[in-house]
Amino acid sequence: MTIDRSLAPEFKIPEHIDFPKPIQRTLRNGVHLYFIPTPEIGAVKLELVADAPGILGRKEKKLVPYFTLNMLMEGTRGKTSANLDEFFDTFATEVEVISTFEHQGLSLLTTLKHFRKVLPLFRELLTEAIFPEKELAKRKSQKALSLNIMREKTGNRASQLFRKGLFGDEHAFGQIPEEEDVNSIERADLIDFYQSQLWCNPEIFLTGNLSDIELDLIEELLGDLPVHQAIEVPHIFNNKTNHRLIEDRDTALQSSIRLGCHLIPKSDPDYFGLWAFNVFLGGYFGSRLIKNIREDKGHTYGIYSSIGSLKTADYWVVMADVIKENRDDVIEEIYKEIYKLQHEPIPLAELETVRNYLVGNLLSNFSSSFELISRFKSVHQAGLNLDFYKQQLDFIKSFQAEGIQGIGQKYLSPEYMVEVIVG
Amino acid sequence: MINYHQFILANGLQVLVHEDHSTKMAVLNLLYKVGSRNEIPGKTGLAHYFEHLMFGSSKNVPVFDTALERVGGSCNAFTNTDITNYYISLPAVNIETAFWLESDRMLELNLSRKTIETQRKVVIEEFKQRYLNQPYGDVFHHIRSLAFDTHPYQWPTIGKEIEDIVNYTKQDVEEFYFTHYRPDNAVMVVAGDITFEQIKVLADKWFGNIPSGEIPKKSIPKELPQTGKKTLTLEADVPTDALYKVYHMPGKLQEGYLESDLITDIIGFGRSSLLEQRLVKNGHIFASVGAYILGTVDPGLMVFSGKMEKGQSAENAESVLDELIAEFLQSQVEENILTKVKNQAEAMKTYESVQLLNRAMSLAYYAHLGDPNLYQTEYEKKTRIPSEQIMDWASTILKKENASVLYYKSASKLN
């Protein structure tokens, strides 16, 4: 059979995507549970997610939430640290700490087969942890070492300095933990935080092939978790002007660049436009930054821009590790690309590529049932619901170049960028 | 179990089809049986570098990524010591585009000067970013070159040194392509919301007329058994000492491989493992520790590694590790430990198989080893191995003369 390879095969862009809603229950302590059933999958994932405190009393105690969460597996009233490790490993269960800017908690990944056995012990971690001194001392020395290793990494250091520049070091999001912060942690701090602050406005996100029997068990075991209801104080941040920071390192082989600013909330009418602008610029492999800095100039292994999610307003960051001698060129090129995308006509072929790529990407994000709960969680935590994705799909299908360019001009101004170079 | 059907085209391309109609997506995973084990000294890193060239253009496709993004797809690839694996994920209705793209770059890749030179720079930056500009980042460069004398596993997939990447010629690249990127050296898995009949037609249409390879692969030098312990001491600007102790072990399909896997599961997997409990939680020398196997097709390495607490030396760490291993060799594997390891192997399969892409990759990987059913049978075999057999292999492998040790010492002012 001879074929004409010069003709690309016909293709279709999916018209419709299902955005399944979770089943909701409310436990007797008021905690909401969101569940998406996955009949064909033997794995079960339960996440208990609470609000993280934004401003922590004393600055030197900034690692209290970290140590509290990481010490939950180090012994409870009923079980020693070794007992807990043995139990969870025997049932091939992974208990992990959840820690993001705005949320903290614990996740449980197990199999349906073992779920009912491991849930009671998972529950014990939430209120019965005893924070033994010996295990705390080990955790502290491990953390001090990992902070030292992280500090050596230019990429990591640049991200820290960027956050500090963006959020300020009065706020938890901008604080950089140091070895002396580890030293200032005492057992009493953790116990106090555990009892009075940890489970603040928690919610449960659940997925797996679970029946009412398991859901009832969750209601029974987690329904008596004492929770703190707190009214959120919104974090308001403002863009700074001309904030530039360089940390030179003679021994570094590359320079790590971080550049970005505050954006708008997901509920803002301009949000999707800004989101799309970011995709064109640096949000996918075919983006302008990749094409210019990597595929044309070869200055880096990777350069991406992305939007970070926060409740009150998202933020934007460009990240790249580049050839040291080219670091200033790269920054200049980033600004050039922003300007070009804002002001020069976008070719039709590029518009079509991005539009179709984004539909495919959205379909892909909703194609694995086990991940649907995470999709729900991310919009829910921003105070929205699944309509967000419907609107996003409608936007992808219909947006016009001029619209997103205008929005790009409005929010991405060079003078508001925090610029960091390490290395 | 992962359901599949397979067929082989006349040119030798092996095709497996895994139908899953619970999704609207499809995956095309194309594995080439080439990795850094097929490289020669002076040209190390070529397999990985070549993977970058595959994302340039081919005769009828000016830019690979753009052509795929235009139909809603995305792609990536990885290279390791044994294989180079490409994967495309896209709406299942557009699966034919994946066939067009993959067949075009197998048939007629454009090896333009611009692509060759730009990707050379990109890969050099990757080398720096991932291996040189990271604390402890070059550990495996040293440990591999210490442990292996003749086998190409003596360098990591990124390459032995940047100099090699600088020196590849156009001829090296072309010869590599025509030797390894041929249908009879590949396994294709198509998975998702597609049908066997549909894939049969498409495979024949797009791949059927690609010629088989004509250049024979070079034979890979075998590593002779090690006869004495080897050591290397290095100083680097890192916050604390690190210890890497490795032992030669059998290759993927050889006797003793699964036992080696079990040995490291028992000693080093999870928080309840012997290493973690004894050396980290109840010891003052190690800050972290681990044990694992490299899982290579040819005979590879069993690795014990750890970072030391501040002020503790890698040499001291080795002696407490040796004590623990000696004690392990005198012991029996108890029933509860075997149950734990078995539960973990079972759960790991459950977790891995959640993703369509993982299922496609697993099928391709085991098909490349010779039989896709090995995915299931290896697991069953592993969970039936009796304790004595594990301990016999432990005594064979964990011998002083079979060990290579890297003392990666902190020269930092912090210490």
CATH superfamily of the largest domain in chain A: Metalloenzyme, LuxS/M16 peptidase-like
Proportion of strand residues of chain A: 15-25%
Report the helical percentage of chain A.
Answer: 40-55%
Strands of chain A, total number = 11
| Overall pLDDT of chain B | 96
**Quaternary assembly:** heterodimer
Radius of gyration of chain B: 23 Å
Largest sheet of chain A: 6 strands, mixed
Indicate the structural class of chain B. alpha+beta
Q: How far apart, in Å, are the first and last alpha carbons of chain B?
A: 51 Å
The tally of domains of chain A stands at: 2
| Helical stretch tally of chain A | 15
Low-confidence regions of chain A? none
Strand order of the largest sheet of chain A: 1-2-6-3-5-4
Order of helices and strands of chain A: EEEHHEEHHHHHEHEEHHEEHHHHHE
Fraction of helical residues of chain B = 40-55%
Mean pLDDT rating of chain A: 94
Largest β-sheet summary of chain B: 6 strands, mixed
SSE string of chain B: EEEHEHEEHEHHHHEHEEHHEEHHHHHE
Tell me the total number of β-strands of chain B: 13
Shape verdict of chain B: globular
3D structure, described in words:
- The complex is a heterodimer of chains A (423) and B (415).
- Chain A has 423 residues and is α+β, with helices and mostly antiparallel strands.
- Chain A has helices at 64-70, 81-90, 112-127, 133-152, 154-167, 179-183, 187-196, 212-222, 271-283, 288-296, 327-343, 348-365, 372-380, 387-398, 401-411, and strands at 23-26, 32-37, 43-51, 94-99, 103-111, 203-208, 243-247, 254-262, 300-308, 315-323, 418-422.
- In chain A, the strands form two sheets. A six-stranded mixed sheet of chain A has the order 1-2-6-3-5-4, with helices on both faces. A five-stranded mixed sheet of chain A has the order 7-11-8-10-9, with helices on both faces.
- In chain A, helix 1 packs across helix 7, helix 10 runs antiparallel to helix 11 and helix 12 (348-365) runs antiparallel to helix 14 (387-398).
- Chain B is an alpha+beta fold and 415 residues long.
- Chain B contains 15 helices and 13 strands.
- Chain B has helices at 46-53, 64-69, 95-107, 113-132, 139-147, 162-167, 170-180, 196-207, 257-268, 274-281, 314-329, 335-352, 356-369, 374-384, 387-397; strands at residues 5-8, 14-19, 25-32, 57-58, 74-79, 84-91, 109-110, 186-192, 230-236, 242-249, 286-293, 300-308, 403-410.
- A six-stranded mixed sheet of chain B has the order 1-2-8-3-6-5, with helices on both faces.
- In chain B, a hairpin with a 4-residue loop joins strand 5 and strand 6.
